[in-house]
Structure formats: structure tokens, C-alpha cells
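hi! just following up on the protien thing from before. the input was this:
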Amino acid sequence: MRKIENSELNRLSVNEFKESKKIPLVIILDNIRSQHNIGSVFRTSDAFRIEKIYLCGITATPPHREIHKAALGSTESIDWQYVENTSTLIQQLKEEGYTIFAIEQAEGSILMDDFHYDYAAPLAVVFGNEVNGVDEEVMELVDGSIEIPQYGTKHSLNISVSAGIVIWELFKRFYTIRKGF
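and the predicted 3d structure came back as:
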């Protein structure tokens, strides 16, 4: 077995990526403290061609050294926007036809394995602060909550890990329903 060289990966250029078809998924980062986590979400979002990332509240924005270190240039390929107030953004996205789910352990949460959605419509998912999770005001506005099943002692995942799991799961479902790109 031979490892594939970087030159063999058929990577898109930034311009090709910007012009490529995306899955109708936006990521909302609600008051994320760690720039490493932010950069990791950018990198994962690039890998699975999500539509856009919204950075809200205290979430740092590019350019930033720590974001760049984890993002590896994906801040250039992924469309992103800073919005100060997450609640205002959610109301705007709802007006644009998005359904919005928090990624949170909450009453009535749907386990990721049991989450069913009409993948023909646009979807937004909210990831919350590393300590406090998704803000209560935001939780009152979302259409529901998705929970990643966990069976250990901590019942807590790093935001970048949670984003990786959720984005991958949603990508597979969008990709299957839409028969690729």
C-alpha cells in the first residue's frame, strides 16, 4: 500500500471551491472562545463543502494567528460572516427559509442517529460556548435540538469534535439525497 501524495489528491483551488456546489448547510458559532476550535470548524466545513459559517458574539474572526493555524487556509475558501447577535441572525435565517437546530443536550433533544430532516431544504446548526453551551435565548428560537449520543463518564465533547461529527453526518445525508454534487 502506498500513501497518496498531495499532488494526487485533485484538490480544488480556492476559486474552484467558491464556484462549486455546496450542501445547503450553514454553521453558526455562538460565543466560541477558542480560536483553535474556530479554525478547526473552518477546516471541517471546507472538507465537506458547507455553504457558510456565521461567527457570533465573542467568537473571534479571521485573520487571527490561532484560527489560521488550525484552519490551514480554509478561511479563504469558506464564506463566513460576523454577526454580533445570534438571536437576530436566527430570525433572519428563518425568514430566508432555514430550519435551525442547536447542537445541545436539552429537554426534547433528538439523538443524531434518530434525526430526520427534509434534506431538500436549507439547514442551520448552532454550536455553543465551550462552557455554557448554546445561549438560553437562542435555545428559545431554534426549531429543535440535536444531541450527539455519548456513553462515557463526561457527556461532553470539544466543539471542534462535535462539529466534525455533526457536519460529517449531515454531509452524508445531504449527499445521498442529492446524489452527489
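The mean pLDDT is 94.
The CA atoms of residues 40 and 70 lie 5 Å apart.
cheers
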